[in-house]
């Protein structure tokens, strides 16, 4: 198991050092500094073995977190734990910075004592931890016996992520469907690969211990209910941002630990008692019938050896009433470019020599529109026989719908002990689709 | 409240000031001072001098202060054990506190203070806490048992904590169960033979129930523990799989990987034609793909693991294809992933068809890699060669320039690997001669033309066409062209005389490249003096090429599959390669696959103590080169003092006592054969062997087995300096190359004139074996008795005098229990142990014996045998060696 945990600043000075196992000595602290932080060549592997001691590290801004062990530990677990550690620290004192860590070092030691015992991760849900570890020191001593046993049963209990007795005057929840759409397209417009990775993020402000049930247009569920004859021609007919699409095929999804997995496995229903505040309910991945919000049509012509003519057309492919934002098209230019003239109808375009690309930015663009840029690229003559590799044209954007076609059908809230019903809960749903790696070869 | 100010004090009299503040009456000031102390401790300053002052602050109601003091204690208690005792009372008191948080804190902290005296006091409170009404205290106490076991294993056993811990597996609270499982797994790891984690269907059921309820970390502990279980039949296997499968949707990727591990292992038990088997296989792939979109560090772990998994299960179906493309995307966009992404052939084997598809689609670099991979695939896996070659031919037909060039380069290698098999494709290759513009491809093509000149009608024309621009070519091409034309000339001397003269003069006279000139001159002279010799040199048979790849040996792969998610799977090394001591030496195997060694848990297991782990190649190499005179750190774990003599003796001998005694009938002494170097540690070379003394000559009898896929040659052996100066008396006689799956028996005579260095244990021998692949290291232990020389019989008078002379310090006594040794003098004498005198006192036979070692040291022993009682008492008097370990002496006497 984890033998020790160190936090360093960017200079490699130790801010926090907690050793859990006898086989980890003080020299381990220095070994990591010398061999990784101050390494002459950047260490690319997140796992380093120095003198039979393994170091796992993650970096947050310029802070290094390192877990050390001499055993054959579960590597995935160690990284998950380090991420969790970052989450917990962020939940307590905000950004992970040298200043914040120094300001809260007593708190961090206290947390480390609680969430890692002899190197074994223990309950690390902030919801539970905050009931008995606070920045103002420990509340423990002023608590009654009932409160104490409530804390301990919560920390060790089945619902470790939520404490009892939460009350809100207004019961409210926010659902964000955040997707990133990835595409690789051939110059002729053939999709070489496309996938969407999405997340459902929930912010819940609900009283008591509410039982929630989340429903979406999952093809398996819809088909089972016999409602959708959807599979015949789902995506094709609708260019309207997925509104007409009945159901989607989800390749794979993972859930926050609050979701009852065995129930999902058997009935494919998503039921849970949510943590309080913001958390990620699920992640998913789809590859079929993806709505590609933009189509890029490139045209590159070589005029002699010293000139290139580039014309790129982008077409928005969603409902005209919707607006895409933060659009950026990046057109790579050869290394021997000497000058560029750009003409575009919409937005602003600039040649950025340092990035070897023409960057074309458009603030907003409605659906079913088209825009065009043309550029003349002057080249310096070179002896280099090797042809320009023509990297793909990449795009960035943000659209107010889910390119996978995912729709939230319902999120029902039941709290039998308190006097509010599903109808009293104010619910908000928002869809945001962003570009991941969105590339078209030219 | 900001605490950063505590980091800033760097004044000189700091310790003094802190001391004063710690003893202040004001609570606030005390707390501030302790914080300063902790801050100093963190940055590495030595504040141990403040120990008594800090401990004095322990008696407080303030929980925050208490925690800080505890933190300090954990760090420094070991350096001040006497003073640490001062803290015991407070701990014991805190364990009785009404607040469960304080009870748990106390027991948690006590377990971290590694001072013997404190651990004694820990037992009672721990026992209470293990049965505490509060689950929070119980879960903390469960881990504390593991802590205590790490400090004093015997104590834990004696106090019966293990049973209590086992009971906790049935606890009502899932977190208590999870921690108990974690603690038991860890303890069990250091006792590979004990039946600690007694997993049976009932406990498995309990674990599976807890799995649904406990924290994400608890799920990992439970899944990792489940992976060690072997189901009784395929039905049980299936039902476990069914209950583990939902974990594949967990957000925590460690849970997912551990679940994959369990499923991969238990799937082996299922019949392959079962519908469920197929369903399960389908379910495995998507979560693995999902892992690839995790954070970069986890992505790295996931990639290394997927790498293993696809080598084991080729058919992960359509998803793999997607994974593959994802890979290519990651590669193409290095800005995305800061981590070096690694390809393995296994990927390519699975996706050969897709490769072809992509070879024309995506970017140049990727295509090149893909084509090259097809070639490597052909070379490594003979069965796939046919398919690979036809794929490559298809690719050449595409006429895409860089594809063709890359394909020709790899085809050249395929020709060399499989001579006279695929030459029919040469025609197609020649068609593409003109389009080649990269040196490597041109060189490859020229090589092909030269090598197969007799089959290519217009070989001379082809080569001549290259010759025109000779000076514009890169050196690589020039050299190749020179050789190819010489080959051609030797094959078809009549038609090509002119050509060869041309190239020789180009190479020798017009070129300033020394390499080229030299080669030109050599050929020229060869051709002019002795054409037959030239033929022998230039057209000599070429050795087959073999491909070093990242494909993992099947045995190692099997073990690694059992370690999915762990460091072993990230390093692609067995845990013993990077974990010290006994932990992790235990080898895991997949169920249902070919069993090589009996289960380690069996009774005979005790005698199969694996050879000591060699620390690291670096250290050992240093020793082998005689650069280092310090005793090596290797010495396997010292046998636990409790294990009893008999056990220790067996450890050393590697065989059961019975076999030993049986063998005493022969004049030679044999020890049962042991595997010294397992195949997975030595790239497929397995060495097992034994030692013997035959007719006064010490011999090392070894069996070398090649379990790799390629031929092994050039064997050599070397010993590290050792206690008795053992050294090989001759070279290792492995004359013919060792082909795959072949074994060879070698007897290596030893002498004792090598360099001497005391080893621990004394009879440890570190050996390096070299072959054409690498150098491997192992260590083994030889029976001391093989060092007893034939003239070890001491005169009676001398014996008596010597016995008296040797100081008492050198004498040690042992009991050998339950040993039915018919110790007649002649048998012992066969092993060069000579009985000098025998007398009977009060129904006991007393035997006095002497033996002499190769280095001239005498050993004297007194063996007391009680008639009708199988127990022997031995007292031994030693010569010059002061520090024989107990075990050594026992072995010695037993022989």
Q: What this model shows, in words?
A:
Chain A is of the alpha+beta class. Chain A folds into 3 domains: 4-130, 2-Layer Sandwich (Beta-Lactamase), CATH 3.30.450; 172-224 and 246-290 and 403-440, Immunoglobulin-like, CATH 2.60.40.1170; 294-399, Mu homology domain, subdomain B (Immunoglobulin-like, Sandwich). Chain A is built from 8 helices and 23 strands. Chain A has helices at residues 27-37, 75-93, 98-103, 105-115, 126-129, 145-156, 219-225, 261-267; strands at residues 4-8, 14-19, 47-50, 53-60, 63-69, 116-117, 120-121, 172-185, 191-205, 211-216, 252-255, 270-272, 277-286, 294-303, 307-316, 323-332, 337-344, 348-352, 357-366, 370-379, 393-399, 408-414, 426-440. Chain A has a 9-stranded mixed sheet with strand order 11-13-9-8-23-21-16-19-18, with no helix packed on it. Chain A has a 5-stranded antiparallel sheet with strand order 2-1-5-4-3, sandwiched between helices. A 4-stranded antiparallel sheet of chain A has the order 14-15-20-17, with no helix packed on it. The radius of gyration of chain A is 27 Å and the shape is globular. Residues 227-244 of chain A have low confidence and may be disordered. Chain B is α+β, with helices and mostly antiparallel strands and 895 residues long. Among the domains of chain B are: 3-229, Alpha Horseshoe (Leucine-rich Repeat Variant), CATH 1.25.10; 438-529; 674-784, Immunoglobulin-like (Sandwich); 788-878, TATA-Binding Protein, CATH 3.30.310.10. Helix content of chain B is 49%, strand content 11%. In chain B, helix 18 crosses helix 32 (554-561). Chain B starts with 13 loop residues before the first helix and ends with a helix. Classes of the chains: A alpha+beta (442), B alpha+beta (895). Chains A and B meet through strand 2, strand 4, helix 2, helix 3 and helix 4 of A and helix 2, helix 4, helix 7, helix 9 and helix 12 of B.
């Amino acid at each position: 198991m984890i033998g020790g945990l160190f936090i360093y600043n960017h200079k490699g000075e130790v801010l926090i050092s907690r050793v859990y196992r006898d086989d980890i000595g003080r020299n381990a602290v220095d070994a990591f500094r010398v061999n990784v932080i101050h390494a002459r060549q950047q260490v690319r592997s997140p796992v380093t073995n120095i003198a039979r001691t393994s170091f796992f590290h993650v970096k947050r801004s310029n802070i290094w977190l390192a877990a050390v062990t001499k055993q054959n530990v579960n590597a995935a677990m160690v990284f998950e734990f380090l991420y969790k550690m970052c989450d917990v620290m962020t939940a307590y004192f905000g950004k992970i910075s040298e200043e914040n860590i120094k300001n809260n070092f007593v708190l961090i030691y206290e947390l480390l004592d609680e969430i890692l015992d002899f190197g074994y991760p223990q309950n690390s849900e902030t919801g539970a931890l905050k009931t008995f570890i606070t920045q103002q020191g420990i509340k423990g001593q002023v608590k009654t016996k009932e409160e104490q046993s409530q804390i301990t049963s919560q920390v060790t209990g089945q619902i470790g992520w939520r404490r009892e007795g939460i009350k809100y005057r207004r019961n409210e929840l926010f659902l964000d469907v955040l997707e990133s759409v990835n595409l690789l397209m051939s110059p002729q417009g053939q999709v070489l690969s496309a996938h969407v990775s999405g997340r459902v993020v929930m912010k819940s402000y609900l009283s008591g211990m509410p039982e929630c049930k989340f429903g979406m247009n999952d093809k398996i569920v819809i088909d089972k209910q016999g409602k959708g004859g959807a599979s015949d021609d789902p995506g094709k007919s609708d260019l309207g941002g997925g509104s007409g699409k009945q159901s989607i095929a989800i390749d794979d999804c993972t859930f926050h630990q609050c979701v009852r997995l065995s129930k999902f496995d058997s009935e494919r229903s998503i039921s849970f008692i949510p943590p309080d505040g913001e958390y990620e309910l699920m992640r998913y991945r789809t590859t079929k019938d993806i709505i590609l919000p933009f189509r890029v049509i490139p045209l590159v012509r070589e005029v002699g050896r010293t000139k290139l003519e580039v014309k790129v057309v982008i077409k928005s492919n969603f409902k005209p009433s919707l607006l895409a934002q933060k659009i950026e098209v990046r057109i790579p230019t050869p290394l021997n470019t000497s000058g560029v003239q750009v003409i575009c109808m919409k937005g602003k375009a600039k040649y950025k020599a340092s990035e070897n690309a023409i960057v074309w930015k458009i603030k907003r663009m409605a659906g079913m529109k088209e825009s065009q840029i043309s550029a003349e690229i002057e080249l310096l003559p070179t002896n280099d026989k090797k042809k320009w590799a023509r990297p793909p044209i990449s795009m960035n954007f943000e659209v107010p719908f889910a390119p996978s076609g995912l729709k939230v059908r319902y999120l029902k809230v039941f709290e039998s002990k308190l006097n509010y019903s599903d109808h009293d809960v104010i619910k908000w749903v928002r869809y945001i689709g962003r570009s991941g790696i969105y590339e078209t070869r030219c | 409240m900001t605490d950063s100010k505590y980091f800033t004090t760097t004044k000189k009299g700091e310790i003094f000031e802190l001391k004063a503040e710690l003893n202040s009456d004001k609570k606030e000031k005390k707390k501030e001072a302790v914080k300063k102390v902790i801050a100093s401790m963190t940055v590495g300053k030595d504040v141990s001098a403040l120990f008594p002052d800090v401990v004095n602050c322990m008696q407080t109601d303030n929980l925050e202060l208490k925690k800080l003091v505890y933190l300090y204690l954990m760090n420094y208690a070991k350096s001040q054990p006497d003073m640490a005792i001062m803290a015991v009372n407070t701990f014991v008191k805190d364990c009785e506190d009404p607040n469960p948080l304080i009870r748990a804190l106390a027991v948690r902290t006590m377990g971290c203070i590694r001072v013997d005296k404190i651990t004694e006091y820990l037992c009672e409170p721990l026992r209470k806490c293990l049965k505490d009404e509060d689950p929070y205290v119980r879960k903390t106490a469960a881990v504390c048992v593991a802590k205590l076991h790490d400090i004093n294993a015997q104590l834990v056993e004696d106090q019966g904590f293990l049973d209590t811990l086992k009971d906790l597996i049935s606890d009502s609270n899932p977190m208590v169960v999870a921690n108990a499982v974690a603690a038991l797994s860890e303890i069990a790891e250091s006792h590979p033979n004990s039946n600690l984690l007694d997993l049976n269907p009932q406990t498995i059921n309990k674990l599976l129930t807890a799995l649904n309820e406990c924290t994400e970390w608890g799920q990992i502990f439970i899944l990792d523990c489940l992976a060690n279980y072997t189901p009784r039949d395929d039905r049980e296997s299936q039902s476990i799989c069914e209950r583990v499968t939902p974990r594949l949707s967990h957000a925590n990727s460690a849970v997912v990987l551990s679940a994959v591990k369990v499923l991969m292992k238990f799937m082996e038990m299922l019949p392959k034609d079962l519908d469920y088997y197929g369903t399960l296989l389908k379910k495995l792939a998507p979560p693995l793909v999902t892992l690839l979109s995790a954070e970069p560090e986890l992505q790295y772990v996931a990639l290394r693991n997927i790498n293993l998994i696809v080598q084991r299960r080729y058919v992960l179906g359509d998803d793999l294809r997607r994974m593959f493309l994802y890979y290519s995307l990651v590669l193409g966009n290095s800005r995305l992933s800061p981590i070096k992404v690694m390809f393995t052939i296994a990927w390519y084997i699975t996706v050969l068809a897709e490769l072809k598809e992509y070879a024309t689609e995506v970017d140049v670099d990727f295509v090149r890699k893909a084509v090259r991979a097809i070639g490597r695939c052909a070379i490594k896996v003979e069965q796939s060669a046919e398919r690979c070659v036809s794929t490559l031919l298809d690719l050449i037909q595409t006429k895409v320039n860089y594809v063709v060039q890359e394909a020709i380069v790899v085809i050249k290698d395929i020709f060399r690997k499989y001579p006279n098999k695929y030459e029919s494709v040469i025609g197609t290759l020649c068609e593409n001669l003109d389009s080649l513009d990269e040196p490597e491809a041109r060189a490859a093509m020229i090589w092909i033309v030269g090598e197969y000149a007799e089959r290519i009608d217009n070989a001379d024309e082809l080569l001549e066409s290259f010759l025109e621009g000779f000076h514009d070519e890169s050196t690589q091409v020039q050299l190749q062209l020179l050789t190819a034309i010489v080959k051609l000339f030797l094959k078809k001397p009549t038609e090509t005389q002119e050509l060869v003269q041309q190239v020789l003069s180009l190479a020798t006279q017009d070129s300033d490249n020394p390499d080229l000139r030299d080669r030109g001159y050599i050929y020229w002279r060869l051709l002019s003096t002795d054409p037959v010799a030239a033929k022998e040199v230039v057209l000599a048979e070429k050795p087959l090429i073999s491909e070093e790849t990242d494909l993992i040996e099947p045995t190692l792969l099997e073990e690694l599959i059992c370690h999915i998610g762990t460091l072993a799977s990230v390093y692609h090394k067995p845990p013993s390669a990077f974990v010290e001591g006994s932990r992790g030496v235990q080898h895991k195997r997949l169920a249902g696959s070919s069993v090589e060694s009996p289960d380690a848990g069996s009774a005979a297991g005790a005698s199969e103590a694996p050879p000591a782990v060699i620390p690291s190649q670096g250290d050992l190499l240093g020793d082998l080169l005689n650069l280092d005179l310090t005793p090596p750190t290797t010495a396997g774990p010292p046998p636990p003092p409790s294990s009893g003599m008999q056990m220790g003796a067996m450890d050393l001998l590697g065989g059961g006592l019975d076999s030993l005694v049986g063998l005493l009938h022969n004049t030679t002494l044999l020890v049962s054969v042991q595997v010294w170097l397992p195949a997975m540690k030595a790239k497929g070379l397995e060495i097992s062997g034994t030692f013997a003394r035959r007719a006064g000559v010490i011999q090392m009898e070894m069996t070398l087995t090649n379990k790799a896929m390629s031929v092994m040659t050039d064997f050599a052996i070397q010993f590290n300096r050792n206690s008795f100066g053992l050294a090989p008396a001759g070279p290792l006689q492995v004359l013919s190359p060792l082909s795959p799956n072949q074994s060879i028996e070698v007897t290596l005579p030893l002498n004792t004139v090598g360099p001497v260095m005391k080893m621990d244990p004394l009879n440890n021998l570190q050996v390096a074996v070299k072959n054409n692949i690498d150098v491997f290291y192992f260590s083994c232990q030889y029976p001391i008795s093989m060092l007893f020389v034939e003239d070890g019989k001491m005169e009676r008078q001398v014996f008596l005098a010597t016995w008296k002379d040797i100081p008492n310090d050198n004498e040690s006594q042992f009991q050998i229990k339950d040993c039915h040794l018919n110790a007649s003098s002649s048998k012992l004498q066969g092993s060069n142990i000579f009985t000098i005198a025998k007398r009977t006192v009060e129904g006991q036979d007393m035997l006095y014996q002497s033996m002499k070692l190769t280095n001239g040291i005498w050993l004297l022993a007194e063996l007391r045998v009680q008639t009708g009682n199988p127990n022997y008492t031995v007292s031994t008097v030693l010569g010059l060696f002061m520090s024989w370990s107990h075990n050594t002496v026992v072995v010695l006497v037993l022989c």
